[in-house]
Design goal:
The protein is α/β, with parallel strands linked by helices. It contains six helices and five strands; from the N terminus they run E-H-H-E-H-E-H-E-H-E-H. Helix 3 links the parallel strand 2 and strand 3.
Length: 163
């Protein structure tokens, strides 16, 4: 099977592969400190269950990463993935000023990917992303292995379109 024909395993980053608990405090107050939140991402510890799943998926699938992080975080994100020994793969990020909810932006990209490739799985912690992807016919694994996201992070994901 050639690389371009392998099915895709699509992984979210925050609270799926990377533990954001240490930086969620930047989202608890208003105004939210988005610069500090994203600047702290390189210090995220990996989530063991997510890392094990991506390594297992890479045996049969091409891995791609689909994150709500803004494009300005690309180099930090690539460095973090490499430091964790995670499989190389294309990283899909939110445009810097795109404030649409994650469930809209991620589903848009999933549909684009599915036009030419089989999506074997989407792995994401965001319940709304998972629900919408499942309704659209994508196989979903809900990442429930991180600590519960703070209200600030949940609001950021859905209402503010920030992550």
């Amino acid at each position: 099977m050639t690389e371009t024909r392998r099915p895709l395993a699509v992984f979210d980053l925050d609270n799926t592969l990377a533990d954001t608990a240490h930086r969620q405090r930047f989202l608890e107050n208003r105004p939210r400190d988005w610069d500090a939140f994203f600047d702290a991402a390189p210090q995220d510890p990996p989530l063991e269950k997510g890392v094990a799943l991506v390594l297992e998926a890479a045996r049969e699938c091409e891995v791609v990463y689909l994150t709500g992080r803004p494009e300005r975080c690309r180099q930090d994100t690539l460095d973090w993935l490499a430091a964790q020994g995670l499989p190389e793969g294309r990283v899909w990020m939110r445009r810097n000023h795109d404030r649409r909810p994650a469930r809209r932006t991620k589903l848009e990209i999933l549909r684009r990917l599915a036009a030419t490739r089989e999506i074997r799985m989407l792995v994401d912690d965001d319940e709304l992303v998972c629900d919408d992807a499942r309704r659209a016919g994508f196989p979903v694994v809900r990442a429930r292995w991180a600590a519960e996201a703070s209200e600030g992070l949940r609001e950021a994901q859905e209402r503010e379109g920030r992550t």
